[in-house]
Amino acid sequence: MSILIRSVGVSIPEQRISNEELAARVDTTDEWIRSHTGIGARHVAAEGDQTSDLAARSALDALARAKIAPREIDLIVVATATPDYFGFPSTACVIQEKIGALGCAALDVTAGCTGFIYALDVASSMLEARKGRHALVIGADTLTRITDWSDRSTCVLFGDAAGAAVISRIEEGGRGVLGSVLGAEGGGARALYLEQPARDSTFGRPEQVVPVIRMDGKEVYNFAVKSIAVLVERLLHASMYRLEDFSWIVPHQANARIVQAAAKRLGVPESRFYMNIEEYANTSSASIPLALREMVDKGLLVQGQLVMLVGFGSGLTYGAIAIRW
Ligand code: ACO
């Protein structure tokens, strides 16, 4: 038995903001952003679009590519840090209604930028436990909505997007998801968090407040570089494969410099890491499916190849998954 990734769908907002356009509004330059992050532009969700709208479009795209009808889906697992609703209902339930996958199980996973890895692991495990045949794994975020645009050290980093994978349990063994490593360092929770302004707790209607991203850039940077190296080593140890067996490492697209430093630490050529941060910036839990879809479109993923997905993010969380494509 295997858990196979059948297709990857995406939804990328049309509105694109280049570094130069951003520099007209924020005290920054194209040169600084590119040299410190590798980012050249970001896409921003249209007014009125919520995370679930981007997510539903990416899900329908993935379903069409897999030739699977929404009603055949048994499970939806959504990774997001920007849910439509605070607390409940889950964004997965909202998406279920929007795509017409009525009746299936639906839940959200909170793991920051590691969200897609966590969600894929949760959904694969549930399918392995025979809780259904087909699942949708979605990473969707609209981080520009919770960005503090007066904080130039964070506001240049993020973009909005959604990516979805249709995964299926098949009888044939040795393909698809081969193994995973997940972890967290809760002690680093305050290195990257959503600041919630104080609410009025007296009787009456609570104030509507929008949380904003707060980040200790250096701490996250160090954690991310260390995490990639540790994850790769742990995954290799668990899977009995060698690093050179993997055709691609697909990292969470947070910062090109993080990937360069991790590649150096592992002694792997940077070209084995797939990067597309230049166009989309950091789209949080959408970044890995966005990269996968681009690779599919470019013909870079060939059936039988070994591919490693590596993520890190708020929590602090980290995770990696080995896949035979
Ligand atoms: N434009 C121009 N100057 C800037 C900007 C900007 N956008 N942002 C910061 N600076 C200035 C600072 O004010 C500072 O100036 P000073 O020396 O006069 O005080 C100088 O640049 C250096 O600032 P640092 O914060 O030290 O810059 P650093 O080299 O650490 O880069 C960065 C900041 C890019 C955020 C880096 O710390 C980093 O990549 N951290 C990793 C965090 C990350 O990628 N997070 C993404 C989300 S988390 C995730 O996905 C897991």
Question: Describe it for me?
Answer:
By secondary structure, this protein is of the alpha/beta class. The chain has two domains: 2-174, Thiolase/Chalcone synthase (Peroxisomal Thiolase, Chain A, domain 1); 177-197 and 208-324, Thiolase/Chalcone synthase (Peroxisomal Thiolase, Chain A, domain 1), CATH 3.40.47.10. It is 32% helix and 26% strand. It has ten helices and 13 strands. Helix 3 (51-66) packs across helix 4 (91-99) and helix 7 (217-239) crosses helix 8. 49% of the residues are buried. Acetyl coenzyme *A (ACO) binds at residues 28, 32-33, 36-37, 113, 152-153, 156-157, 192, 215, 217-218, 220-221, 224, 254-255, 282, 312-313.
- Identify the CATH homologous superfamily of the largest domain: Thiolase/Chalcone synthase
Q: How much of the residues is beta strand, in percent?
A: 25-35%
In N-to-C order, the SSE pattern is EEHHEHEHEHEHEEEEHEHHHEE
Fraction of helical residues: 25-40%
Biggest beta sheet attributes = 5 strands, mixed
**CATH architecture assignment name of the largest domain:** 3-Layer(aba) Sandwich
CATH class of the largest domain: Alpha Beta
Q: What is the SS-derived class?
A: alpha/beta
Oligomer: single chain
Bound molecules: acetyl coenzyme *A
Number of structurally distinct domains: 2
Total beta strand runs: 13
C-alpha geometry: globular
Topology:
Layout lengths: L1 E10 L4 E3 H5 L6 H8 L3 E3 L7 H16 L8 E5 L11 H9 L5 E5 L5 H14 L5 E9 L9 H4 L4 E11 L5 E9 L7 E4 L16 E4 L1 H23 L6 E6 L4 H11 L10 H4 L6 H11 L8 E8 L3 E8 L1
Parallel strand pairs: 4-5, 4-6, 11-12
Antiparallel strand pairs: 1-7, 2-3, 6-7, 8-13, 9-10, 12-13
Helix pairs in contact: 3-4, 7-8
The protein binds acetyl coenzyme *A.
